[in-house]
Amino acid sequence: MTPEPDAIVVRGLEKRFGSFRAVKAIDLTVRRGEIYGFIGANGAGKSTTIKMLCGLLPPDGGRALVDGIDVAADPESVKRRIGYMCQKFALYGDLTAAENIDFFGGVYGLDEDRLKSRREELFSILDLSNASGTRADELPRGFQQRLALACAVVHQPAVVFLDEPTAGVDPVQRRAFWDLIDSFSAAGTTVFVTTHFLDEAEYCRRIAFIAEGRIAAEDTPAGLKTLLSGRAMYEVRMDDPAGSLPAVRALPGVLAAALFGVTLHVAIDAAADSGTLFGRLPGLAGFEPIPPTLEDVFLHIAGKPS
Ligand SMILES: Nc1ncnc2c1ncn2[C@@H]1O[C@H](COP(=O)(O)OP(=O)(O)OP(=O)(O)O)[C@@H](O)[C@H]1O
Ligand SMILES: [Mg+2]
User: 40: Cβ below 6 Å to ligand 1?
Assistant: First the structure.
């Protein structure tokens, strides 16, 4: 049997909770070895989609193939072929790091020799060797997330689903975590990942933005930024950034404005003269052009009526 050319194929996938449509007929395709980012606000439908793709939640419509297997027809086969790191803490807190790995490896049917070599390999790659004998609930958050990743990939799945793997992890460890995700992808594993951090989404090969259960846009990070063509982005410094937002938004030629830390990110019509436009603002401390970020794209898409 020839393997499916694509790792994940989703057509018209639908999930309802009572009369509420949490996932609305979504379509997507993830290629083998790809890092595919699934990005959206709280409640957008990310975890619900992942649970359907992992064979944990039956879909109410449409079809999804994961590693060539239909998730609705054969969820048990899907579960054996994939790794899943769920959004909530899912380790056994009263087991040590090593015992957690051994438990998950056992569930996936790894024999003792294989389990030992995988444990040593993963603990070395994930820098967990010193934590081997520590109870999972006593590990720092960054270690817990790395251990959860190790448990999700112990059986070398073809496809791994990571639901907010870097939530609660500091920026340095987040960067290191993405290096690991990269190395899995380089070794041929397909990675389907959600995150709230849009700077991290830049590391994905392709991204789908999901809003209220629908895919609002899907492309490479660079491709998504072209959605902002016709606009020029500026960082604007104001004496009172938050208080000045209404005045900035009211300027003719301003298409969008949002608070970014202590500055504003402002999108203006590319044809407008920035000096004349911002010169009208009382309390202006300075402004300069900036390249658009995925956060700008996300705000642009999220601001559009569906
Ligand atoms: N078992 C359930 N019963 C009823 N409603 C649910 C259930 N699971 C999820 N929902 C609802 O479906 C919507 C999508 O939830 P989901 O957990 O998929 O969002 P999410 O994008 O993962 O959000 P977050 O970023 O907060 O993790 C939400 O409105 C949520 O309240
Ligand atoms: Mg979620």
Answer: yes
Report the atom number in ligand 1 closest to the C-alpha of 213.
14
* Pairwise pLDDT comparison (224 vs 176), residue with the higher score: 224
Q: Is 17 in the pocket of ligand 1 (CB under 6 A)?
A: yes
1, part of any domain: no
pLDDT, position 206:
97
Which amino acid, 264?
A: L
Q: In degrees to the nearest 10, what's the CA dihedral of 171, 172, 176, 178?
A: 20
Total of domains in the chain: 2
Whole-number Å distance, alpha carbon 194 to ligand 1 midpoint, is: 14
**Residues 208 and 102 occupy one common structural domain:** yes
CATH number at residue 128: 3.40.50.300
Residue pointed to by tokens 């995700």: 181
Atom from ligand 1 closest to the CA of residue 51: 18
Give per-residue pLDDT as tens, 161-181. Answer: 999 999 888 888 888 889 989
Centre of ligand 2 from the C-alpha of residue 87, in Å? 6
Which of 167, 196, 219 corresponds to the end of one domain? 219
Question: Nearest 5 degrees, angle CA 245-CA 305-CA 293?
Answer: 55
Of 219, 248, 276, the position where a domain reaches its end is 219
The residue range of the domain holding 256 is: 228-302
